[in-house]
Design brief:
- This protein is α+β, with helices and mostly antiparallel strands and about 100 residues long.
- It has a domain of about 55 residues.
- About 20% of the residues lie in helices and about 15% in strands.
- It contains one helix and four strands, in the order ββαββ.
- The strands form two sheets. It has a two-stranded antiparallel ribbon. The protein has a two-stranded antiparallel sheet with strand order 3-4.
- The radius of gyration is 20 Å and the shape is extended.
- The two termini are about 35 Å apart.
Amino acid sequence: MPDNVSLIHLNLKEDIHIENSSEISYLFFRQGKPIDKPLIQHGPFVTNSQEEIQEAMQEYRKIQFGGWPYKTNEPIHAKKMDRFANFVNGKKVIK
């Protein structure tokens, strides 16, 4: 990420005008409402409490994000593999 990152808050009721110099720029817009709850992050896990982080880590160790039926833990797998989810209660969904 470049060092010259700026954050602005936009008002949906106002028009905006953006001008750029000859340099390449990237814009990322995001919308959301504040949840007014604490956010706790540990690695890829984000929850509202340290206890929930511990639960997420325990579940990950147990089922590896749904029990991936792959030969490796690599994040990339064959295109022919169906999308699926294995739930803790034993339910399996294949799409």
